[in-house]
Amino acid sequence: MTKHLRVLHPHKNIYAYYDGRVPGYRFMEQENWVDNGALSLGIASYAIVDGNEALVYDTHCSNDYARAIREHLTSIGVTKFTVLLSHWHLDHVAGTEVFKDCTIIANQKTADHLAKHKSAIEDGTDHGLPAINPLIMPAQTFSKSMNFKLGALDLQFLEFNIHSDDATVVWMAEQGILLAGDTMEDTVTYVGEPEHLNTHLADLDHIWALSPTHILPNHGHADVIAKGGYGKTLIRATQQYIRMLKRMIAEPELRDQDLRHIIAGPLEAGWVNYFELYEAVHKSNVEMVLKAKLN
Ligand SMILES: [Zn+2]
After folding, report:
1. Distance 210 CA to ligand 1 centre (A)
2. How far is the CA of 181 from the centre of ligand 1 (A)?
3. Which of 39, 56, 58, 246 is 20 to 30 A distant from 73 in Cα terms?
4. What is the helix, strand, coil percentage profile of the chain, to 5?
């Protein structure tokens, strides 16, 4: 199940567990959220390590993935695990059972979403198969922000409303590194909550103000992640794309253009990289925005 999993080492204290974008490979034969939302686009979850302690940022697509992550961390001497969930979507919370003996942290909104959808997630009717059963709930919650000491490292967990209203990112101020969850993606953000696009833009400005030098998203290009992540311009690329989506309400001629044209500027500048399967994400984003009729 995890034979294509790659352990990347973008920074001294950070590991990325990357799978997906593997031509011809499927997780399951039938329609399922692991192939559709995660492996097709590429997915990484992360661990920050100092000494014998690790912060596991998301539990990946299944217990098998989570087990592989835990085994890797154990092999390099980690004995104390803490889990932080980036948001409540299934490809980020599927392996919680493997860490049921550890503290799982999430912001209050994430905990509320998970509580509301728990039974559907566990019986496979929330986003379909595979079911996540049992889903282990966060035992510790915070709102807005939380400081966390991992060994000698100072981490900040920051809550934003980008992509989903319950996003938590990890900010390592001293290193200039941001673990971004799904607040930004390469090639483009996935719009599931079009009614919040203006808040997404404003909160992306808040991230810009932090001035990160390295951004590590959960859905992106493995080579870029392996080399340390994206520049600050990934934030601008995401904002420009969101503004283009908003323009489509008043400018119908933009609606049928393919993604390559819509984001030609950021592509040319090298802020993001074109990955063909994001054309379908873009189509779905356009439909979502038009349906919500934003101003
Ligand atoms: Zn995701």
Report:
1. 23
2. 7
3. 39
4. 35, 25, 40
Two tokens, residue 290:
């038009």
| Gap from CA of 217 to ligand 1 centroid (Å) | 9
Tell me how many domains the chain contains. Answer: 1
Runs of H (alpha helix) within 22-141: 33, 63-75, 90-93, 108-123
Q: Within a 13 Å sphere around the CA of 130, how many CA atoms are in the beta-carbon half?
A: 18
Ligand 1 centroid, distance to 142 Cα (angstroms): 21
First CA to last CA distance, the chain: 44
Domain of residue 101: give its range.
Answer: 6-292
Give the whole-angstrom CA distance, residue 255 versus residue 267.
19
Dist. CA 20–CA 106, nearest whole Å = 25
**Is 172 within a domain?**
yes
Spatial distance between the Cα atoms of 151 and 172, rounded to a whole number of angstroms: 13
Mean pLDDT per 10-residue section of the chain, whose length is 295 residues: 94 97 90 90 97 98 97 98 98 98 98 98 94 97 98 98 98 98 98 96 98 98 98 98 96 96 97 96 96 74
**For residue 220, how far is its CA from the centre of ligand 1 (angstroms)?**
10
